């Protein structure tokens, strides 16, 4: 029997929806799939859905509470598989993010890995397969 469950998306709460969407578009070449305004329980929210456009429908959702502050960053780590980890790190810095840990090789896993944050401090793991 196969598992019919699949991982579909990650959502991150942000303070500045447009600035954060711009960051992820410019650094990770994501495109905007949809914008949604609605309610989740008693909370009014705005959301931007970003995608790679590769056809696998992987989605990053950026949520903003309309009537209260976002939770503190750090509750999740986003992971991006990239073609060039060093170039991605340069784009992160140029777009207002910060380097937490420079790119380093992990030969036993055949990858280069670096850790950065977006402009609001959300942790991102950047992975390049060798």
From TrEMBL:
Residues in VOC domain copies: 6-129
Pfam family, one: Glyoxalase
Top-level taxonomic group: Bacteria
Protein name, as recorded: VOC family protein
